[in-house]
Every structure is written in C-alpha cells, then in structure tokens.
C-alpha cells in the first residue's frame, strides 16, 4: 500500500484505482472550516476514487468546523471515523453510495443539526450517532437498512419522530428504540406499490388487517 498527501488529507491506496482517507494532513495548528472530502484524487497522473474513511481518521478533531461534505464515491465510513468532532455543524448528508456506517462513527458530534441517511445504507453501527444532541426533528431510516446497532442514537433527545421501514428485524427495532429518549415517536412505514395486486384474484382480506388507519391517504 502507498500513502499520499494532497495537502488536505492523507490517503492510502488500498485497492486498484481506489484510496481511503486516513487522516488530515500534518498541520495541527489550523482550523478546517467546511471540510470537503473529494470523490477522486490524482497523484502522479493517476486518478483514484475515494471509497472509504478509515477508523479513527478524524477522532476528536475539534478543528473540523462547519458542514462536512462526504462524496458520492465513499461506500464505508469506518468505526470512530469522526468521533468527537463537536465543531461540525449544520446538516450531515450521508451520500447514497454509503452502505456501512461503523460503530461510533459520529458519536459526540454534538454540533450537527440535521441528518440525512443515504438510501443505500444497510448497517448503522452501535453508538454510530450517540451523543449527537443537536440533531432534531424527524429522522428517516431508509428502507435498505437491516441492522441498527445498540444505542445507535443514544442521547439524541431532540429527535422527536423516527420513521423506519418494515425490513428492520424486530430485535434491531428494539435496539433502535432503546437508543432514543423516552417519548420519541416511532412510525413503521410499509408500502404497497401501485398495481401490486393487478390481475390477481384476492379472495380474502383478514379481519383487522388494516386497523385504526383513518389517516391513510388514497390515490
């Protein structure tokens, strides 16, 4: 493996045509406002895709301030990648390319105000967003998520509503609920696609299959 420094970040070439972000370039006195991780880097006339962020890459780096931008080339954010980056603020957007958010990846990033989780995420690790006390409002867990680790959102007391999908297993659903403040509302989303029963003969819809659902919209 080869290590590169582009003046902003240090990368390691860990696979063909791809690199991971290892850490900030060596300059401990600076403040990095609105840190932006690039989707590609070109080194010695070779272009590499940035596909992952190493564990502990920015651990406790309070010099990171403002809005963090993660490119739509990253597939994995490893454990504790941004742990304790309390200077980050605004909305964190996990891009649609990401499939895994590691354990404690954003724990104690208390300055974050909003969170959008990309539609390709399947795993949210334990304590991934624990202590992100600035997050507020409604959180949507995308439909591909099947695993939510214990205490993933512990201490996110300002998130009032969580919308999640039916493919989260019951055990992990319990873990999800245990990670929020008491009083958070959980809404499981189950969709029936248009024409799902087209040209199908339905002989029976069991009693109470749709119950207390006066607010369901129809089209």
Give your account of this protein's structure:
With 219 residues, the protein is mostly beta strands. It has a domain at 52-191: Ribonuclease Inhibitor (Leucine-rich repeat, LRR (right-handed beta-alpha superhelix), Alpha-Beta Horseshoe). 4% of the residues lie in helices and 31% in strands. The strands form 4 sheets. Strands 1, 2, 3, 5, 6, 8, 10, 12 and 14 form a 9-stranded mixed sheet that branches. Strands 13-15-16 form a 3-stranded parallel sheet, with no helix packed on it. A two-stranded parallel ribbon has the order 4-7. The longest helix is centred in the C-terminal third of the chain and has 9 residues, at 170-178. The model has no long low-confidence stretch (mean pLDDT 87).
Sequence-ordered SSE layout with sheet pairings:
Elements: E1 2-5, E2 9-15, E3 18-24, E4 32-33, E5 40-43, E6 46-53, E7 64-65, E8 76-77, E9 90-93, E10 100-101, E11 112-116, E12 123-124, E13 137-140, E14 147-148, E15 159-165, H1 170-178, E16 185-189
Task: Quickly list its features.
single chain; 219 residues; mainly beta; Leucine-rich repeat, LRR (right-handed beta-alpha superhelix); nine-stranded mixed β-sheet; three-stranded parallel β-sheet; globular
Q: Indicate the CATH architecture of the domain at 52-191.
A: Alpha-Beta Horseshoe
Q: What's the total helix number?
A: 1
- Helical percentage: under 10%
**How would a crystallographer describe the biggest sheet?**
9 strands, mixed
Estimated radius of gyration: 20 Å
Q: What name does CATH use for the topology of the domain at 52-191? A: Leucine-rich repeat, LRR (right-handed beta-alpha superhelix)
Strand content: 25-35%
Shape: globular
Q: What are the low-pLDDT stretches, counting only 5+ consecutive residues below 50?
A: none
Q: Number of DSSP strands?
A: 16
CATH class of the domain at 52-191: Alpha Beta
End-to-end separation in angstroms reads 56 Å
In CATH, what is the homologous superfamily of the domain at 52-191? Ribonuclease Inhibitor
| Secondary-structure class | mainly beta
């Amino acid at each position: 493996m080869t290590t590169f420094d582009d003046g902003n970040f240090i990368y390691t070439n860990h696979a063909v045509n791809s690199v991971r972000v290892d850490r900030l370039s060596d300059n401990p006195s600076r403040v990095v406002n609105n840190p932006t991780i690039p989707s590609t880097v070109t080194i010695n006339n070779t272009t590499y895709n940035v596909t992952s962020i190493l564990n502990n890459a920015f651990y406790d780096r309070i010099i990171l301030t403002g809005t963090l931008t993660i490119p739509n080339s990253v597939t994995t954010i490893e454990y504790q990648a941004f742990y304790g980056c309390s200077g980050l603020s605004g909305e964190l957007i996990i891009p649609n390319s990401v499939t895994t958010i590691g354990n404690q990846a954003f724990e104690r990033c208390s300055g974050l105000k909003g969170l959008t989780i990309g539609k390709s995420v399947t795993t949210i690790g334990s304590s991934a967003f624990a202590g992100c006390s600035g997050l507020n409002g409604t959180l949507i867990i995308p439909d591909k998520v099947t695993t939510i680790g214990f205490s993933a959102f512990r201490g996110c007391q300002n998130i009032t509503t969580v919308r999640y999908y039916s493919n989260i297993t019951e055990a992990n659903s319990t873990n999800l609920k245990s990670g929020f403040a008491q009083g958070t509302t959980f809404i499981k989303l189950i969709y029936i696609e248009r024409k799902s029963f087209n040209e199908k003969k339905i002989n029976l819809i069991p009693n109470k299959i749709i119950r207390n659902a006066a607010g369901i919209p129809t089209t």
